[in-house]
Design a protein that fits this description.
By secondary structure, the chain is of the alpha+beta class. The protein has helices spanning about 10-20, 25-35; strands at about 1-5, 50-55, 60-65, 70-75. Strands 1-2-3-4 form a 4-stranded antiparallel β-sheet, covered by helices on one side. A hairpin with a 2-residue loop joins strand 2 (about 50-55) and strand 3. It is globular and about 35 Å long. The two termini are about 15 Å apart. The mean pLDDT is about 90.
Length: about 80
């Protein structure tokens, strides 16, 4: 069963998803760069959401929302 995980900070999001995003860095470079670009990675930003979809321990998709934009990364083959 898939589970939606809401990460509170950029660091929490990167710690959980960086390896997944790095597997296809070319496709995911925007979400990596934006996540790494926060000056304080331990701060909770009220207008930013970091999400992961996990199924049996495997990351299926991630999402980054910086109002009003949404970026989603995922691999439909997985």
């Amino acid at each position: 069963m898939s589970k939606l995980i809401i990460h509170k900070t950029p660091r929490e999001f990167l710690d959980a998803n960086y390896r997944y995003l790095e597997q296809n860095e070319l496709k995911n470079n925007l979400i990596i760069g934006l996540s790494l670009g926060f000056e304080d990675k331990d701060k909770e930003y009220k207008d930013v959401n970091f999400l992961s979809v996990v199924n049996n321990g495997d990351i299926k998709a991630v999402s980054f929302r910086n109002t009003p934009r949404v970026i989603i990364a995922g691999d439909p083959e997985k």
